[in-house]
Amino acid sequence: MEQNKKNFKLVSNKKTRVILPNIFTLIGVCIGLSSIKFAFDGNFTLSILAIIVAAIIDGLDGRIARLIQGTSKVGKELDSLTDIISFGVAPAFIMYFWKLNEIGRVGWLICLIYVICVALRLARFNVYSGQGPLWKENFFQGVPSPAGGVIVLMPLVYSLSDIQFLNLNYDLIVPILFVLVSILLISKLPTYSFKRISVPRNMTIFLLFGVVLYFGLILIYTFNAIVISGLIYFLMIPISTLHFINLNKNNKVQDISSEEHEDIL
Predict the structure, then answer these.
(1) Does residue 184 sit in helix, strand or coil?
(2) Strand, coil or helix: what is 140?
(3) What one-character DSSP code corresponds to residue 139?
């Protein structure tokens, strides 16, 4: 009897490891859908905060899955489906309710184009992820959908922030930004993925301090910090492209030299 009690488990360890990250993913999609409801009610502050929380959860669920060895094909597909909702459909609706509805059918067409580009970008990611050399895993092809979803919200975030050093024409800026981000999503520009960050042991404490400081700024100066983060990310796109080209050139030289060495032997 005692032996049966010891062997009894509600779920196996393997199933538990798979379920946990998927729960995080589903919570993220619920928050992303809630942002549409907040925007429909005219509460754009809550809608932006919901997207930011969904982006944080999206960044954590995959890392948690890899950390506890709970990755699965279902989790990968589920993550992409939730990204379409949280960072494709939700931002499009938020910006349509805020500004794009003022330009009529063209505004709705821009929303449709953006959501389609998010779907295409995620489909390409699912097909080509994990292929190629290990060093290429530090880069995405095009802007990732969570970053794209936050960037298209930047005009709204800027309007709610205390950083008002420019008088922007939102009727012009919002459609242009949507089209630009849509192109960046389906482009093949290499952008940093931050999947593999090697930090020396003696620098770990400074990294932790920086992360805590950043989230502290997000909590206290929410919209100001988001605007600055968006600008920094935009500046990093050409830097990441140049970095990728340099790495690709160096690795090609190494491959050629190794092939010549093999021919000599």
Answers:
(1) helix
(2) strand
(3) E
Q: Can you count the helices (H) and strands (E) in the chain?
A: 11, 2
- Structure tokens of 118? 């998010």
Cα torsion for 102, 103, 105, 111, to the nearest 10°? -80
Spatial CB neighbours of 163, under 8 Å, sequence gap ≥ 6: 224, 227, 228
The secondary structure of 36-94 as a DSSP string is HHHHHTT-HHHHHHHHHHHHHHHHHHHHHHHHTT---HHHHHHHHHHHHIIIIIHHHHH
Sign of CA dihedral 21, 24, 25, 26: positive
Domains and CATH numbers, the chain: 8-195+204-264 (1.20.120.1760)
> What does DSSP assign to residue 168?
-
- Write the pLDDT tens digit of every residue in 59-70: 877 777 767 766
DSSP conformation class of 182: H
Average pLDDT, integer, range 26-49: 93
Specify the pTM: 0.83
Task: Specify the residue for token string 């003696």.
Answer: 202
pLDDT higher than threshold 90 for residue 184: yes
Range 251-258 contact pairs with CB under 8 angstroms and sequence separation of 24 or more = 251/133, 251/135
Residues, the chain: 265
Helix axes of 222-264 and 204-220: crossing angle, nearest 10 degrees: 150
Neighbour-count burial for 89-126, b at 16+ CB within 10 Å, e otherwise: bbbbbbbbbbbbeebeeebeebbeebbebbbebbeebe
- Phi first, then psi, for residue 42 (nearest 5°) are 85, 5
Work out the widest C-alpha separation in the chain, in whole angstroms: 76
Distance CA 42, CA 99 (A): 12
Dihedral sign, Cα of residue 192, residue 219, residue 94, residue 107: negative
